Amino acid sequence: VILMLSRIEKVKNVGLGIEAFLELVKNEQYGDYRLEIVGEGSLKATLQEKYKNYSNIIWKPWTTEPEKEYAKAKVFLVTSAYEGWGMAPIEAISLGTPCVMTYVGCANECIFDNENGQVAKSFEIHEVKEKLEKVLSDLPMYTKDNLKNSLSRLQTQEEYLDILLQSFKKALL
Fold this sequence. Notes:
The protein is of the alpha/beta class and 173 residues long.
């Protein structure tokens, strides 16, 4: 299972994740994977209709128990066009699921290539697919202990806010 768990709104760019997944499973090596999309939102019905002929794309309602979804997943996928401080990637990592994420929000602060996932620097389908391939081909290195240990590199909330404040001050000068 490759998991997407989010609001299904334009900013979350779920269509990019779906397209990258569909490119991924063209490779026989990944043909048995399925994409589970957990969430609700204004684009859900539209996307369900568009991809209704793909039996390997599973739509689920929002859950208050995301840990059960993370536990089943080999990879957590975030393809947002914008994020503030995304908690979902940190939840996934803390529960032992590596993350592939677009270069938004907390990507640089919490996802470290080849340590707890991969960061796609562009919003190109082929790059997201390549990052998924990279994580899936290297799954044995993404042990629960390695993933949890990577969280020790995260900044505290105060440190992160201070960095943001310094950035805003520089931007205003």
